[in-house]
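Tokens in:
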């Protein structure tokens, strides 16, 4: 059987499919005809092997309580070893409905109300939500945008924030969303050693780990055993294979005590067996998905290069931040002189685009916009033309 879904230029109509990306603009207070490049899912069909596995399971016609067997873990373990040089053990795995759910469970499991939790803004906005919604305090070690148009970690501030705020939990985003940074092994070692020194648990959101275009992704927990002993690593096939709605993520916790505490919190939330379709899709993805994955990754990388060239030539005052991973492009509009609120207005009501405003990623995101480029090139090109029209008219 050959992979069939390799035409990433194909335009697939997602409207009227209960699609969050395309069908809910009006409900979110936007014009109905906006072109959406916001939420992080792809406009590509997933691997045909996944389609076929799901069809076979659906045709069985019974969807009772289900659990994964050995072949599910084996597929996950082989993928991690093959793509990330990380050998995981079966008892380390806890499955959850999603990574954001896992972040919330970690906040509840390892901190108390009014405790401070450390993040690095501008960062994926649910990081802030799961902290505040659980009555904890946000402390940010803001990433520093350098003259090289890349974000960097202020390690002195990182340690200072831990000490001053009695931090016991740090939410790491690597590859970093929205900046695209794939932190180096050396950067992660510095972070890890500081966390070890001060007794800080690290929840590492590595859901974009398979999108490392310009630098190799390093699994934080795999650097050394001492890091594994303080780590909760959050992964999923959902970003890599466009499976967000099947609701399954793989949370990997080597330390027995941390794992027990986390599992208690998941149990308290009423979660036991997950979707059988999620189990089937993930197993098929990690078993048969390599050909689709590599082809998709090449296509997305070409889209990123296309955006970079277009921005440099056609969008005066705009800079594309130099990231190494994710399919999310982070654009800096501050050089245009347009106020952040006015920029949002022009993008939504004049360009008729639905992007992610930088403001939702923290104060340091004001004046930026996040664009999802995991879409056919024609959609990306149309988006950029619309941006050009509101900047150059």
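Residues out:
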């Amino acid at each position: 059987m050959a992979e069939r879904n390799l035409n990433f230029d194909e335009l697939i109509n997602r409207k009227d499919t209960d699609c969050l990306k395309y069908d809910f603009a009006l409900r979110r207070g936007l014009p109905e005809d906006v072109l959406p490049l916001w939420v992080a899912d792809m406009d590509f069909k997933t691997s045909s092997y996944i389609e076929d596995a799901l069809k076979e399971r659906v045709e069985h016609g019974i969807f009772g309580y289900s659990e994964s067997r050995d072949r599910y873990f084996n597929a996950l373990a082989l993928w991690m070893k093959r793509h990330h040089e990380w050998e995981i053990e079966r008892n380390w795995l806890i499955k959850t409905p999603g990574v954001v759910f896992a972040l919330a469970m970690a906040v509840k499991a390892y901190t108390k109300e009014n405790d401070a939790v450390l993040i690095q803004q501008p960062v994926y906005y649910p990081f802030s939500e799961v902290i505040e919604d659980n009555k904890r305090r946000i402390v940010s070690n803001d990433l520093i945008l350098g003259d090289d148009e890349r974000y960097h970690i202020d390690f002195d501030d990182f340690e200072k924030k831990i000490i001053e705020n009695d931090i016991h939990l740090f939410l790491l985003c690597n590859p970093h969303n929205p900046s695209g940074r794939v932190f180096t092994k050396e950067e992660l070692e510095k972070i890890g050693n500081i966390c070890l020194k001060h007794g800080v648990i690290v929840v590492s959101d590595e859901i974009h780990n398979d999108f490392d275009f310009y630098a190799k992704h390093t699994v934080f927990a795999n650097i050394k055993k001492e890091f594994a002993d303080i780590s909760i690593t959050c992964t999923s096939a959902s970003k890599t294979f466009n499976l967000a709605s099947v609701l399954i993520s793989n949370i990997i916790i080597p330390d027995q005590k941390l794992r027990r505490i986390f599992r208690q919190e998941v149990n308290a939330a009423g979660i036991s067996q997950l979707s059988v379709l999620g189990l089937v899709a993930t197993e098929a993805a990690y078993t048969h998905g390599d050909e689709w994955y590599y082809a998709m990754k090449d296509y997305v990388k070409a889209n990123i290069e296309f955006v970079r060239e277009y921005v440099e030539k056609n969008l005066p005052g705009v800079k594309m931040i130099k990231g190494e991973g994710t399919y999310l492009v982070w654009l800096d509009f501050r050089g245009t002189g347009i106020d952040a609120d006015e920029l949002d207005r022009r993008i939504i009501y004049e360009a008729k685009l639905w992007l992610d405003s930088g403001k939702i990623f923290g104060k340091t995101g004001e004046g930026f916009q996040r664009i999802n480029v995991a879409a056919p090139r024609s959609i990306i090109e149309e988006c950029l033309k619309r941006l050009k029209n509101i900047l150059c008219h």
